[in-house]
Amino acid sequence: MKKIAILGSTGSIGTQTLEVVEQNGDIEVTALAAGSNIVLLEKQIRKFHPVLACVWDEQKARELRTAVADLDVKIVSGMDGLMETATQPDAEIVVTAVVGMIGIRPTIAAMKAGKDIALANKETLVTAGHLIMPLAKELGVKILPVDSEHSAIFQSLNGEKGNKIHKILLTASGGPFRGWTKDQLAGVQVEDALKHPNWTMGRKITIDSSTMVNKGLEVMEAHWLFDVEMDQVQVVVQPQSVIHSMVEYEDGAVIAQLGTPDMKLPIQYALYYPQRRFLPGDRLDFAKMGKITFEAPDMEVFCGLKLAYEAGRRGGSLPTVYNAANEYAVGKFLKREIPYLAIVEMIESAMEHHHTIENPDVEQILEAERETYEFLQMMQFNM
Fold this sequence. Notes:
Oligomer: single chain
GO molecular function: 1-deoxy-D-xylulose-5-phosphate reductoisomerase activity; manganese ion binding; NADPH binding
Strand order of the largest sheet: 4-3-2-1-5-6-7
Protein name: 1-deoxy-D-xylulose 5-phosphate reductoisomerase
Number of domains: 2
Function: Catalyzes the NADPH-dependent rearrangement and reduction of 1-deoxy-D-xylulose-5-phosphate (DXP) to 2-C-methyl-D-erythritol 4-phosphate (MEP).
Domain DXP reductoisomerase C-terminal: 258-372
CATH class of the largest domain: Alpha Beta
Helix content: 40-55%
Binding site for 1-deoxy-D-xylulose 5-phosphate: 122, 148-149, 173, 196, 209, 214-215, 218
Radius of gyration: 20 Å
Number of strands: 11
């Protein structure tokens, strides 16, 4: 029986991972980690019987410890607890589904403990890809992508070892504001940005999808995962979310992965790779679909994508600044403290302010994040 640990078990990817576990019945969950949702985490503990569970908040951890006192489970907290969860001895695969740069240290720790990584925390590669990918190669551990687009690329590369990639075609739905002007975007409210046309995701990533910053992060992630240059990754808007991404080889052949917009497919593929399993759910009906359309992204209106290419090309600590500024700004927007367009304005300001460090170590990456937050706290954006 395969054994896994899940970091971020109460979030969108974490809960869907547990659905896959339940549907298959032959995976044991040895450890779970969550932020503060101890009500859901307690339910997960009682259902899946992990030996270890982590809550980021110490007070919440104490409350959970009392709530599950009748069970044989160890409750830990904070970064030390997250590291312990990531390195739980019995786990073979660690699903990293936490949001943000908090995932860097646990991912590295899990790899050093010999765990394969089912990666749903794109920020780890965006900010520390220059550390993560060489380490994975050195240690002989697998990085199995869970993002739908990167899983699609991974699947499109199967059987093509040694064949040269010409470019990666990274698809995007275009989000809820595809075709809008900047003037129209100026009035966007939180409720508008949380209405994704195709995917059901967490709040932060849904906002990122609407600004296309998420696609920018995915371009940088693909750059590291598949060892290609930034300019070899081309974003193509595919509004129906049927083609999840494509790979073009040097002979001009293009291989694509298609499917319904269901995150359980890439999750299950990562957990059982290279085996495919039956997955309940809808199937594509091409006759009913009629057509699949494509268009180029508007990088002048959605300039967060343009800034991502700049950050990725320049490299060093600048992708960290891009990511940190976005995390900070999205948090402010969700609290209704800044207007929608200020998200990308804050990213651009932070990038302009930063003095890039080449090949930063983990401490320098985290310091760049702290400095970005401090810089943005001094800025004023009026609603």
